[in-house]
Amino acid sequence: MTDPTTHPGGAAGDAFPLPRATTEDERRRGAEVALLPIGSFEQHGPYLPLATDTVVACTIAEAIAAAYPVFRLPPITISCSHEHADWPGTVSISAATLYAVVRDVSESLRRSGVTRLVLVNGHGGNYVLGNVVQEAAGDGRRMALFPGAADWEAAFAAAGLETSPWDDMHAGELETSILLHAHPHLVRPGYETGDHLAGDRRHLLTLGMAAYTGSGIIGRPSLATAGKGKRVIDSLVASFAEYLTVLNG
To answer: Model-level pTM?
Structure first.
C-alpha cells in the first residue's frame, strides 16, 4: 500500500505538494535523517516557471522520501539568485540569511531528535550551502549537500542527456526534462526552439547572467524529454543510498 505521507502528488495542479505527514506519522517513522529542499525564485526563460529550482528540489526530495525512511521538510523557496537580478520576477535573499535559516532549521531538528540533515539543493548559485555543511562537520552536526557534482554526472549519463553539465547550465535539457516528467503542466511552449549555449562564462559572478544570454537560457532545452527526466530522478535516488550510509556511519 502506498504511504500517503511520502507519495508524490497532491491536489490536481500541485507544483510541489507540501509534506502531508502528521506528528504521529513522524513519531512512527522515527527518521534520523531529514531532507530540506532548497530552491530559488528566478527567471528560467519564457517557458519554465520562476519556481523551477524549487520544483526540481522538491521532486528529488519526494522521490527520495518514497524510497528511504527520511523526514521530508517543506522547501526554502527563495535563495541566492543575484546573478539573475536583471530579469522581472527574480527575488533573492542574502547568503547570510540563507546560512542563518539553514543553521536554525538544523538546530530545531536536533532539539526534536533528528540529528542529520541533507540539503537537497536545486539552485547552483547557493554556494553558501557548501560552507554550512563544511562547518557542521566541526561542531557535532551531520549534514550533507545533495546532489553533488558526481551525482549529477552519473544522472546525466544514466539519462542519456546530450548536453554536458557545464553547457546545460540553466533552463536547458536537464531542468526541462525533469519538469516534463514530473510536472508537464508547468512547461510552456517555446522550449523546443530555446537553445542557447555560452560555454565561456568566466566572469559570470561579476557580470551576471545577462552578459551571457538575452533569453535567460543557457543550454539545449530542445533535447528535453519526459523519459530523460525520469531517468535523472531514478539515478539520483540510487545515488542517495551512499549518503545515508555516510550519515549513519
So the answer is: 0.93
